[in-house]
Design a protein that fits this description.
Layout (H helix, E strand, L loop, with lengths): L5 H13 L2 H8 L3 H15 L4 E4 L2 E4 L1 H28 L4 E8 L6 H11 L3 E8 L1 H9 L5 E4 L8 E16 L12 H5 L2 E5 L4 H12 L5 E6 L2 H9 L5 E4 L12 E4 L6 E10 L6 H36 L1
Parallel strand pairs: 3-4, 3-5, 7-8
Antiparallel strand pairs: 1-2, 5-11, 6-9, 6-10, 6-11
Helix pairs in contact: 1-2, 1-3, 1-4, 2-3, 5-10
Bound molecules: 2-phosphoglycolic acid (PGA).
């Protein structure tokens, strides 16, 4: 037992979580042989098999489940220690672990830049993933703070809304609807629609919106990336409804137009959330305060950029 290392436990937890050597290796930026080697050594130290294979997936044995409980206990105690030590040191150093949904990536990194300038010693880890995976991370207590648009109904969390999140209909500039005003929702529903993947918060909001309005979408294609959807729209494959923040860099100066559809934009919000039982580190508390004050201002700036470029483009079209 004395030969068990923290690295072996980290690899073991990743493998237990994902049930696959490939995914565990990807998650930890290791090669598959390294993952196998670490698990082999841990199994040898424990003296019993930790996993069994059913179909193509790995499952924990009873011994594996015991090891996982102890391992998670050790990981939790170590992150508590890390947090206490960081609090002793104040904000000169420490870690900030953030997980944000794929749509929040259009403004969160910009906010991090200014935060980092104020606290250069803080190391920032940013995980970008879709809503479903973000909620899995939250349940596993893997990050300090989470930023998302669609709140979960079944988790005990603290939440702060900090920014508006308008969802808009997007089409190519040369689309026949691009010049029209007050387009009926039913008319939009006739267009081929490009939908985000299942597990996406955007998709959930769009589906609820159409269900509430008793309209049915003609989904032509599902794509698991906002950027790829933008390119597909430019390629003429269809229209979509996405957060206006996906236009943050190019605005409507790019090849995309925001359509004037009845009932849109959908007025949603961005929230920063964390488990209700979680004790935030001083670094996380400071970032949360920053996000609620300064962040609002900076993100409003992004918002303004989009609005301005949109107006410029409308003028250009006239
Ligand atoms: P998504 O989430 O990137 O999973 O679509 C957006 C959101 O949080 O609303």
């Amino acid at each position: 037992m004395k030969h068990i290392t923290l690295h072996q436990l980290e690899v073991f937890e990743a493998l237990a979580r994902s049930g696959s050597f490939t995914r565990a290796a990807e998650e930890l930026f290791l090669t598959q042989p390294t993952v196998s080697q670490q698990i082999k050594q841990l199994t040898k130290a424990v003296g019993l098999p930790l996993f069994e294979v059913v179909g193509k997936r790995l499952y924990l044995t009873d011994a594996g489940k015991e090891v996982l409980t102890v391992s998670q206990g050790i990981t939790d105690r170590l992150s508590q220690l890390e947090m206490t030590l960081a609090d002793f040191k104040g904000l000169k150093q420490g870690n900030l672990r953030l997980a944000v949904t794929t749509t929040a990536k259009y403004f969160v990194p910009r906010l991090l830049g200014a935060f980092r300038q104020s606290y250069p010693g803080i190391k920032i880890f940013l995980k970008v993933t879709n809503r479903q995976r973000l909620l899995e991370r939250l349940t596993e207590n893997r990050d300090d703070l989470y930023i998302l648009g669609q709140l979960p109904s079944n988790l005990d969390i603290n939440l702060c809304p900090f920014l508006e999140n308008p969802l808009v209909a997007i089409a190519p500039h040369n689309h026949p609807l691009a010049q029209e005003k007050n387009i009926p929702l039913q008319r939009l529903a006739e267009e081929p629609f490009i939908m985000r993947e299942s597990g996406s918060g955007t998709r959930m909001a769009v589906e609820n919106f159409f269900a509430q309005n008793k309209a049915t979408l003609k989904v032509e294609m599902e794509i698991g990336s906002n950027e790829a959807i933008k390119h597909a729209i430019v390629g003429g494959l269809g229209v979509s409804i996405l957060s206006r923040y996906v236009l943050a860099l190019e605005g409507a100066k790019g090849p995309l137009s925001i359509l004037d559809v009845e009932g849109l934009p959908l007025q949603l919000h961005w929230y920063v959330v964390y488990p209700a039982t979680k004790q935030l580190s001083i670094v996380a508390r400071t970032f949360l305060e920053y996000l609620l004050d300064e962040g609002k201002f900076l993100a409003a700036q992004v918002d303004l950029d989009i609005r301005n470029s949109n107006e410029t483009s409308t003028t250009r079209q006239k």
